[in-house]
Amino acid sequence: MFRIKPAMLKIAAAAWLLGATGAMADTTLEFTQWWEPELPAGSLRAIMDDFEAANPGVKVTLVSGPYATTRDQISVGAATGTLSDVVGLDGAWVNNLNAQNALADMNPMMDASGFDKSQVADIIKVDGKAVMFPVASFVYPVFVNLDLAAQAGVTKLPSTRAEFLEAAKKMTKADKNQYGWVLPLSLQTPSGVQNDMMSWVWASGQSMMANGKPDLEGKPVVDMLTFVKSLNDAGTISPGIATKTEQEKVEEFVNDRVGMMIDSLAHVNLIRKRNPKLNFDLIPVPVVENYTGKRGLPYASWGIGISAASKHQEEAWKLVQYLMSEKVNAKLVSLANAFPGNVNAKPDFVTSDKAFGKAFEIFKTGYLANEFTGLPVAEDLMTQFDVQAQKMLAGEQSPEQAAAAAQKGWMAKF
Amino acid sequence: MTRQKRSHHKLKRAVAPYLYLSPSLLIIGLLMLLPMVTVIAYSFQNSAVLRRDPSFAGLKHYQAIFDDPVFWASLWHTLYFTCMSVIFHMTIGMAFALMLNSDRINPTLRNILRVLYILPWLFTAVIIAVIWRLLLEPNGVVNSILMQIGIIGSKVEWFSSPQTALHAVTFANIWAGYPLFMVSLLAGLQGIPKDFYEAADIDGAKAYQKLIFITIPQLMPIIISISLLDFIWTMQVFPLIWITTGGGPIYSTEVLSTYTYKLAFSSYNLSQASASAVVILLISLGLTLFYIRYQKAR
């Protein structure tokens, strides 16, 4: 007859205890992001599988969705304390999330693990707390249609604002529906303020802020508005500015209807696919006269952070470290056609593709600049600036008045 | 039967109808009342949704939106957009319905027109927005035709100019919405007894007199019902305006729905967005009550 021995009982009890306390259970990290749908199918999961293999006992569940859905999901998760352990972040969100105490400070984690801070391109801090690393950056250089430039007699691609204005004038042939530049200021997606307007300020090493507060009435922003107005007054901007979206901007460039546009490097493959014959080159955003310093390069990024409410911050930090490590980061950004968050990582496309190679040189000689990162309600600030810029371009106010009105609106948000 | 048994039986009879209704009441409560009550509650809270411990704000958020000139501009744009849409939906719908009901048109042509006229109804709001964005863009077909026949001298930025944007989105909405009227009125027209018109013919009535004294009075219940429903639905239009203009340029097409959306998802001011949503709810509720009373009176 089978008899239960005391030793067997002890083993069973110990196993039950270990199980109940979680000592034997796997830790499952939840990672919410919008990257998976934008990457080749299965590629982010494969990276997570590699991470799991390198860290036994840690599993990663990917919670993926489109950008806008992820943004709303993260906002609600932060409010209800149900934010995933690891979250994909846009720089424009971090201020709000920090105000809700939803993001963990990664400074102590970096210190405890001896993390080499010099290897990362940037650390986004709010109130001294390290809340986000840019994992992959999508820079915004100027795309130039070389055929239109040659036809217009533009032999030297513009390096300064004055040269850009001249080139835009030469490329504009309104009777042929051809314009020098394109400016998308749709209120539906006001990111044109960041990518197509403020990028002129940052390119010249200038700032729209002073002492942590908006400085829109300062010379850099007023000069930029005056420059944009001069482009508009000269009729060089493709019509329909106030309702134009980024997609339409790219379509116009693809169809030889504009000579120059500021756009994300992420669109290079899309542009080639839509018009394989398009002959284009990339240049840095032109600067003010006599500026010789480093150029700020506008960018959008896939950022990463850790939830303050996470019960597995140690494991979450392991995942962040893993994605920021040289080899893994290079692999991820190669898949995304982005520039790395780890300064030592070199994506493979920069050696295999001339356009990306040139953009990588621009990236390496400049610095990443996006002052909307970390600002409160960044999208709302862009909308407010957008409305004032639209009024200026409609002739209802001067650049100085537009800057003053935007400054007033922004100060209310600070 | 004892008194106790009788009262038990009475109670069962009284409760039974509610038990039958309970699944529907539960669904209505969960899917309609709960979200509505929650949004109303948010409108009285500070940092609604974004904080776990929101404080009571009283009428602060209502005060804030009523003090905002953009809110009043949005309300005016909503009224203009809605009234113009309903008036033209009705006029065009009536004209096309009369045309399709007329014996003077060749039956084959009538069938072709029937299909053509109903086409806008088959498209979703997103498709309609994209179609009109393409047609009305500065380099689009509309400008090209108008310039060729000499109506305009230069390209008009229909959606991008503050002077034309509201009219342009209203026009796109009129195009999209008239088939509802057309189909409803056509059904109504086919239900009017022929005797009325024959009697009018004997009395020597002219075509316009038959329209004014027979057709319109006979269709009046349909016209009023559909107009009220159209008013309620058009007031809440969002995707068409959002995709064509985003509420711009310079707030010139901002309506209550885009104003509320921006408060919620651009400013993340969910308390004020809730207050704005409650205002829309109250306006819609007033119209709905009016509609219900009209239906009861009939």
Largest beta sheet of chain A, briefly? 8 strands, mixed
Q: In whole angstroms, how far apart are the ends of chain A? A: 79 Å
Unreliable sequence segments of chain B: none
Uncertain residue segments of chain A: 18-24
Biggest sheet descriptor of chain B: none
> What is the number of domains of chain A?
2
Family (chain B): Belongs to the binding-protein-dependent transport system permease family.
Main location (chain B): membrane
Keywords (chain B): Cell membrane, Membrane, Transmembrane, Transmembrane helix, Transport
Subcellular location (chain B): Cell membrane
Describe the protein's architecture and organization.
The complex is a heterodimer of chains A (414) and B (298). Chain A is an alpha/beta fold and 414 residues long. Chain A folds into two domains: 26-139 and 299-356, D-Maltodextrin-Binding Protein, domain 2 (3-Layer(aba) Sandwich); 142-283 and 375-413, 3-Layer(aba) Sandwich (D-Maltodextrin-Binding Protein, domain 2), CATH 3.40.190.10. Helices cover 45% and strands 16% of the residues of chain A. In chain A, the strands form three sheets. In chain A, strands 1, 2, 3, 4, 5, 12, 13 and 14 form an eight-stranded mixed sheet that branches. A four-stranded mixed sheet of chain A has the order 7-10-6-11. In chain A, strand 4 and strand 5 (129-139) form a beta hairpin. In chain A, helix 8 (192-203) crosses helix 9 and helix 16 runs antiparallel to helix 17. Mean pLDDT of chain A is 90; it is low at 18-24. With 298 residues, chain B is mostly helical. Chain B has a single domain (61-297), classed as Orthogonal Bundle (MetI-like fold). In chain B, 75% of the residues lie in helices and 0% in strands. Chain B contains twelve helices and no strands. In chain B, helix 2 crosses helix 12 and helix 9 packs antiparallel against helix 12. The model of chain B has no long low-confidence stretch (mean pLDDT 92). Chain A binds chain B through residues 72, 75-76, 78-81, 96, 100, 177, 185-190, 239-244, 257, 377, 379-380, 383, 386-387, 390-391, 394, 396, and chain B through 49-52, 133, 137-139, 155, 157, 159-162, 165, 242-251, 262, 265-268. Chain B: It is a multi-pass membrane protein. Chain B: The chain crosses the membrane at residues 20-44, 79-100, 112-135, 171-192, 212-233, 273-292. Chain B: InterPro entries: ABC_transporter_permease (IPR051393), MetI-like (IPR000515), MetI-like_sf (IPR035906).
